[in-house]
Amino acid sequence: MTHPRQHPIHVVAHRGASEDAPEHTLAAYRKAIEDGADALECDVRLTADGHLVCVHDRRVNRTSNGRGAVSALELADLAALDFGLRKTREFWRARDEQPQWEHRPEDREATSVLTLERLLQLVHDAGRRVELAIETKHPTRWAGQVEERLLLLLKRFGLDAPADPERSPVRVMSFSARSLHRVRAASPTLPTVYLMQFVSPRLRDGRLPAGVSIAGPSIRIVRGHPGYIERLKAAGHQVHVWTVNEPEDIDLCVELGVDAIITNRPRAVLDRLGR
Ligand code: G3P
Ligand code: CA
Question: Domain GP-PDE: where (predicted)?
Answer without folding.
Answer: 9-273
